[in-house]
Amino acid sequence: MKRFNENKKGLGALVIIFCLAAAVLTVDRAKPTFIENTFGFIIVPLQSFSTSTADWFEDKANYFKDINRLKQENSELKEQILLQNAKLSQMEYLKNENDKLTSLLQMDNKYTDFSTVGAKIIAKDPGNWYNNFVIDKGSEDGLKKNMAVLSGEGLVGRILECGSHYSKVTAIIDDSNAISGQSIRTEDIGYVKGDLSDMGSCRMEYINFDAEIIEGDEIVTSNLSTIFPPGLKIGYVKSVQTDTNGLTKYAKIEPTADFQHLENVLVINEEFGNDYESDLAQNGN
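Below the sequence we write its predicted C-alpha cells.
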C-alpha cells in the first residue's frame, strides 16, 4: 500500500511537470514545438487525404445525381416534343382536310351552271402523272360512263368505267382521248389529245392551215363535242406548227389542270351526259 502511494505521487509529479513545460513552451513562442511539428507532419496529410476522398465521393454522387436529373429532363422533353409533334400533325391533317373541302367548294361554286358530284382520287396508274386514276364515287352516286371530270382549273377527263362506289377516269393528257376543242379568240376548231412526246401536255390536231391560232390562245371544249358540254377550259397554246402534209396545223397545249397534284375532282352528273353518250355512239367520236 505504501508503494502504491509512492507511485501515485510520482505520476502526479510527472503530470505537473508536463503541464508546466507545456505552459512555458506556449508562452510568446513564434514557432511550433517539435512535438507539434511531428504531429502535424503525420496528421495533416491524413486529414488532407480524408478531405479529398470525401470531396471526390461527394462530387461523384453529385455527378450521378446530375446525370439522372438530365436523363429525366431529357425524357420529359422528348415526351413534350412527341406530344407537340402529334398536335402539329393533327393540325396539319385538319388543315389539309379543310383545304380539300375548301377546294371542292370553290370548284362547285365555279361550275354553278352544272350539277356536280365531288370525289376524291383513291388510286392512280404508276408514274408522276394522273393520266388514269380511280375516284371514290360511282353509279350509286349517280355517275355514268363518259361524264366530264373537272378540277378547279379546268377539264381533267371523262369517266371510262363506273362501279357501284368507284369510277375509273381517263384524263385528257392520255392519248386514248380525243376532244373537240376550239380557240376562244378565233373559234378555230381541232381535236385535242394527249401528247406522247411531251407527257403532261396535249396536242391539238387537224387545225385548218388558214387558222389564226397563236401562242397564248385559250382552248375550250367546242359545241361539236359529243361528250363534254361546250366552254370547259382545256388549256393554253404553247406553240403552233404546220403538219408534214402542209395542209393542216397542230398546236402544243399546256393544260390548265395540274396533272401531277390532283387530289379532288368534280364530276358533271347532269342528264345531258346520256345524250352525249348516245351522240358518241352514233358519230363514232
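The two ends are 148 Å apart (CA to CA).
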